[in-house]
Amino acid sequence: MFRSLTPVVKNLLLINVGLFVVASYLLPVLQMWFPLYYIQSSYFKPFQFLSYMFMHANLWHLISNMFGLFVFGPLLEQFLGPKKLLILWMVCGIGSGVLYAGYTSYQMNQLNTQVEAFYNDPDPEVFNKFVSENSYLYNSAVYDFIDEFSRNPDNETYIQEAKNSMNKVRQDKGNTPMVGASGALFGILVAFGMLFPNTQLFLLFPPIPIKAKYMVTFYGLYTVYNIVVSNPADNVAHFAHLSGLLIGAVLVLFWKKNRASFY
């Protein structure tokens, strides 16, 4: 089975699996250095736009991404060539990180605006709305505090406690990193769907046959849906997935337009 692996795919698999083992068992500090942090976080370093895509949150995260590369990568590498396959993987991965950083900055600016609004006017209703939008970061005891705060809106102790709570949420969100090769993998998926649209695939869940173009379309629509719904408790970086799809599609269209170098 592994003899059918093409060189770039095989090396990417080895690098990702190797780094997972090293970070998990030999150098756990890499789990702090290599993920991609919010650009204004004290943990952010520019090299993380590259390093994050070789780190994974857990074994299942690693397996799911590497399985996609294992399935779709070899045929793409045979068709595009090793150089273009590597370019596709790296550009989609790094590009997804850059676009996700911009998206995260927008979200953090929205969060900062909410915190500043409370500082300017410490209204219990503003705090209640903030808690509701970030409920996954709170336990049920916060609602007892909100009741007390609502009955005593001028209590300085309650106001300071609410400020501390909001700042903790802001700090936690600002220091929550992104890891994984999903952005790069989604670039692989869209390239496969565009170059081999009528290739019949057999899904594992659910176990049904589907053409590549329909599978990619479904993943794209599902990703857009999750971005629009924007469940704050969802720890999947859907915007990075969408970025990988878009960047991959643009890259393939560019190559197809320039057919002299594409074939």
TrEMBL record:
Superkingdom, natural source: Bacteria
Keyword Protease: yes
InterPro entries: Peptidase_S54_rhomboid_dom, Rhomboid-like_sf, Rhomboid_protease_S54
Assigned GO CC terms: membrane
Any matching Pfam family: Rhomboid
Peptidase S54 rhomboid domain location: 47-106, 174-254
Subcellular location: Membrane
Alphabetized PANTHER family for the sequence: PRESENILIN-ASSOCIATED RHOMBOID-LIKE PROTEIN, MITOCHONDRIAL (PTHR43731:SF14), RHOMBOID PROTEASE (PTHR43731)
Stated name of the protein: Rhomboid family intramembrane serine protease
Organism: Echinicola pacifica
